[in-house]
């Protein structure tokens, strides 16, 4: 598959061939869905925590005597059936959400998503992507030449470029990522992909 190569002003300056092993893989939605679930689970943070009856403060004294009051018997006001008591079967903060999936399946799903993006013309390949100093305004102008300002985009960099990273961090819906760290979840979270030609070689060397 051949794709147009653009300069930073959005003008066509040539074309390049995308590796068919990566950018011409037929889609399997079930596999992509499975990989997305695994990656989302692995990124999940354990932020929910409730206290059971042993962790709630107070309740050491029996609220009333066992017999003779006409009321139901209770041993602690921190019982789960009391207001302010412990929580039964609540999140403890010790849950394990991590999941595993074979490396070949992850790579296959990645190629499927890249192929779908290429087929829908959502990938922009640049001959070069460099700016002399961190400047958000310059990066905004470059992106406006490529796609709509309000659309989301993922900048795939062949290596860490501090000038570009600092220039995009204040632009909403735009994020950078190294080509070697590409994954299905990040690709699906953004509509467009912008990458220099060098990034294609890094993807090829990393995943093939």
Automatic annotation (TrEMBL):
GO terms for cellular component: ribonucleoprotein complex; ribosome. One of its GO terms (biological process) is translation. Residues 49-58 have a biased composition (Basic and acidic residues). Residues 59-76 have a biased composition (Basic residues). InterPro entries: Ribosomal_uL4 (IPR002136), Ribosomal_uL4-like (IPR013005), Ribosomal_uL4_dom_sf (IPR023574). Keywords: Ribonucleoprotein, Ribosomal protein, RNA-binding, rRNA-binding. Belongs to the universal ribosomal protein uL4 family. One of the primary rRNA binding proteins, this protein initially binds near the 5'-end of the 23S rRNA. It is important during the early stages of 50S assembly. It makes multiple contacts with different domains of the 23S rRNA in the assembled 50S subunit and ribosome. Part of the 50S ribosomal subunit. This is Large ribosomal subunit protein uL4. It comes from Candidatus Nealsonbacteria bacterium CG08_land_8_20_14_0_20_36_22.
């Amino acid at each position: 598959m051949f794709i147009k190569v653009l300069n930073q002003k959005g003008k066509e300056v040539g074309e390049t061939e995308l590796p068919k092993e990566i950018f011409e893989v037929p889609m399997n939605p079930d596999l992509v869905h499975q990989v997305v679930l695994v990656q989302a689970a692995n990124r999940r943070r354990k932020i929910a925590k409730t206290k059971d009856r042993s962790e709630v403060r107070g309740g050491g004294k029996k609220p009333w005597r066992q017999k003779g009051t006409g009321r139901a018997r209770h041993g602690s006001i921190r019982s789960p059936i009391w207001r302010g008591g412990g929580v039964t079967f609540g999140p403890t903060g010790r849950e394990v959400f991590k999941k595993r999936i074979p490396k070949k399946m992850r790579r296959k799903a990645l190629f499927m998503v890249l192929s779908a993006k290429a087929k829908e013309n959502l990938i922009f390949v640049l001959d070069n992507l460099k700016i002399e100093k961190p400047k958000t305004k310059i990066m905004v102008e470059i992106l406006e030449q490529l796609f709509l300002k309000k659309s989301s985009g993922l900048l795939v960099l062949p290596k860490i470029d501090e000038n570009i990273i600092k220039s995009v961090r204040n632009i909403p819906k735009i994020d950078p990522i190294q080509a070697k760290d590409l994954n299905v979840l990040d690709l699906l979270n953004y509509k467009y992909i912008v990458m220099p030609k060098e990034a294609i070689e890094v993807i090829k060397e990393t995943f093939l």
